Amino acid sequence: MHILFIGYGKTSRRVAKQLFEQGHQISTLSQSPKTDSFATHLIQDVHDLDLTTVAPIDWVYVLLSPKQSSIDGYQRTYLDSVQPIVAALKQHPVKRIVVVSSTRVYGQNAGESVNDETPIQPNDVQGEILYQMEQAYLAAYPEKCTIIRPSGIYGASVERLQKMALSTTRYPNLHWSNRIHIEDLSRFLSQMIHVEHPEKSYICSNNQPQLLHEVLQWFQQQMGLPLLKVESEQVTGKKLYATRMQKMRFELKHPDCYQDYLELMQPHSS
Hints:
The relative contact order is 0.14. This protein is α/β, with parallel strands linked by helices. The mean pLDDT is 96. The protein has helices at residues 10-21, 71-79, 82-89, 125-140, 159-167, 182-191, 212-222, 243-247, 257-265; strands at residues 2-6, 25-30, 40-43, 59-62, 96-100, 112-115, 145-150, 152-154, 170-171, 174-177, 179-181, 201-204, 210-211, 229-230, 235-241. 33% of the residues lie in helices and 23% in strands. The chain has a 7-stranded parallel beta sheet with strand order 3-2-1-4-5-7-12, with helices on both faces. It has a 4-stranded mixed beta sheet with strand order 6-15-10-13. Strands 8-11 form a two-stranded parallel ribbon.
C-alpha cells in the first residue's frame, strides 16, 4: 500500500519505519525537510495542500501538532486543516484515514475513571476544538475514519520531570495523570493496518494512572532531593483506561513507566 503521513514528528517516524519494513510505500508531508531514506518527503503547508502529482494514496495517518498550545494554535493546526486535507485526498483511493487526537477531549477533572465508552464532554476550548476536528473527519469519512486518543506520551526524555522534581517543594493537590510510551503508541498505530473492522475511536494509555505528586516524589528520591509536600486532598485529573485497546489483546512492551524512567536517567540514554 501507499501510505501518507500528514505531519512527521517522533511518533510518525517510528510508525512509518515499521510500515516500510512491512513492505509498504511511504510518503510524508511536513513543513521542513526530512532525510529518512525509506520515505518520499513532501514539503507543503497542510492549509494549501496539493496531492495531484502524488501516486495514488491508499492509507493516511494525520499526526499534526501545534507550535503553540494556544486556542489559535489549536484552531489553525487541528480544525482549519481538515477541509484542505479532505479536499486534497478526494482524488485518491483512500481506504482508511487514522487521525491522532488527544484524551483532552474528555473534560472529566475530579479523579473520574474514563474509558472508550465514556461520553465526551470537553471542559476547555482546546478540548472542544479537538472534538470538532474528530467530528469533521468522521463526517468526511464515515466508514473509513479511526480516531486515536493518546494520553501523555513519554519515552524520549525525562528532562521535564527532573526539572519539576528539582523545583517543586509543594504540590497543590492529588492530580491523576496518564501516560503511554511512544514505542507502544507507534506499534499500536502501525498495527491498525491489520485490523479488519476497527472501532471509530481508541484511547491509547498504559492503564496505570499515576498521582503526579507521587511521580515527582519518585524522581526526588532517585535524585536525592527532599520530598515535596501535598497541600490539599482535593482530587483533579482523570484515570484513563484503554478498554478497546485491551479488547484487541494489544500487549504493551512498556507497562511500567518507572522502569522506563530509570533507563532514561542513565547517562548513555539520549
